[in-house]
Amino acid sequence: MVRRQPRAVQDNGVWIVVTDPDVYGEQEKELLTDVETLCRKEKIVLFVARAADLPHGWKRVE
């Protein structure tokens, strides 16, 4: 999906907001892990924040 976007959009990376991590099931946790792995592989910048920590809680996933 990201690679289909214009280059200017791709350069902004992927931004994901999560709520309380304890409420997610294994499938959701696995999906986030898969996204992190794919972003690393494709060299796509990924930021994740917990909703309670917005607007200053963004963390870059390396």
Pairing-aware structural class of the strands and helices? alpha+beta
Oligomerization state: single chain
H/E element order: HEHEE
The helix tally amounts to 2
How many β-strands, per DSSP? 3
Rounded mean pLDDT score: 94
Summary keywords:
single chain, 62 residues, alpha+beta, 2 helices, 3 strands, 21% strand
Description:
It is a single chain. This protein has about 60 residues and is α+β, with helices and mostly antiparallel strands. The chain contains two helices and three strands, in the order αβαββ. The longest helix is centred in the middle third of the chain and has 17 residues, at about 25-40. The radius of gyration is 12 Å and the shape is globular. The model has no long low-confidence stretch (mean pLDDT about 95).
Brief rundown of the structure:
Helix content is 34%, strand content 21%. The chain has 62 residues and is of the alpha+beta class.
Topology, element by element:
Elements: H1 7-10, E1 14-18, H2 26-42, E2 46-50, E3 59-61
Parallel strand pairs: 1-2
Antiparallel strand pairs: 2-3
